[in-house]
Amino acid sequence: MKSLENIKDIEKAISNEAVLLYITAPNCNVCEALKSKIKELFKSNFPKVLLYEADIAKVPEISSRFNIFSAPLMMLFFDGQEFVREGRNVSLSLLKERVEKVYNLYFKDD
């Protein structure tokens, strides 16, 4: 998961074909515990999705740009459009189902 350090890098990253933006916060134990599970979920099931993370304390503009009120938060983008948003209390099985629907539609011809 590549770390993004400013809002310009975030804007550029989400303009890619398929992107998961993982928002974290300092001293967030849930963020750290969930991160490895999210990475494994996407590598195993959704290999075409690029994984990025941003720390809300290092890039505070993201909270207003994306209406973020808590961490962790996962946002899935396809061609710059947000399709899935999951935060705080995340069920990995439900997240997988939601992402799978959009992913399969988007990459149906591959």
The largest sheet is: 5 strands, mixed
Poorly predicted parts:
none
- Tell me the quaternary state: single chain
| N-to-C series of helices and strands | EHEHEHEEH
What does the model show?
With 110 residues, this protein is α/β, with parallel strands linked by helices. It has one domain (2-106): Glutaredoxin (3-Layer(aba) Sandwich). The chain has 4 helices and 5 strands, in the order βαβαβαββα. It has a 5-stranded mixed β-sheet with strand order 1-3-2-4-5, sandwiched between helices. α2 (29-45) links the parallel β2 (18-24) and β3 (50-55). The longest helix is centred in the middle third of the chain and has 17 residues, at 29-45. The radius of gyration is 13 Å and the shape is globular. The two termini are 24 Å apart. 25% of the residues are buried. The model has no long low-confidence stretch (mean pLDDT 93).
